[in-house]
Design brief:
With about 150 residues, the chain is an alpha+beta fold. The protein is built from five helices and four strands; from the N terminus they run αααβαββαβ. It holds the Pfam family AsnC_trans_reg.
């Protein structure tokens, strides 16, 4: 799907502040409110805009430990293990990476005791997981919340 500079500007503005009204967006891109509404609806219908959401600072909401995991899984159990982990409320995101059986996962928990509990109870006990590597985030310099234009 082709997008012009106005679509790009609308997406940039919405990525910066998803609460902007159609009137405010229209003023920023030089179109009418109705034209902006139609463009945004079109981008939603085409799947360019998947959803509107809020970005929560996990640390300020009590999730003070953020860790990334590389999880190797038996190939025949990859889908089942990935879905099981995806359903866990501590898992912020999970992706299948290159290679037939590697999952990359971001986990948010309250403290290091909860991280240890997650590792022991939610990872090491899962049948099909063959290897787990973890890295704890010490400091966040930048966080991306979607595709940046």
């Amino acid at each position: 799907m082709k997008h012009d500079e106005i679509d790009r500007k609308l997406l940039e503005e919405l990525a910066e502040d998803g609460r902007l009204s159609y009137v405010e967006l229209a003023e920023k891109v030089g179109l009418s409110r109705v034209a902006v509404k139609d463009r945004i609806k079109n981008m939603q219908d085409k799947g360019v805009i998947e959803k509107f959401t809020v970005v929560i600072n996990s640390e300020k909401f009590g999730k003070k430990v953020s860790a990334f995991f590389e999880v190797d899984v038996e190939p025949k159990q990859l889908q089942e293990v990935a879905q099981n982990l995806a359903d866990n409320p501590s898992v912020a995101s999970i992706y299948q990476m290159t290679g037939p059986s590697t999952l990359h996962m971001h986990v948010l928990v309250e403290d290091f005791q909860m991280l240890e509990t997650f590792i022991n109870n939610e990872l090491y006990s899962v049948e099909g997981i063959t290897r787990v590597e973890s890295s704890v985030i010490l400091k966040r310099f930048k966080s991306r919340t979607g595709y940046k234009l």
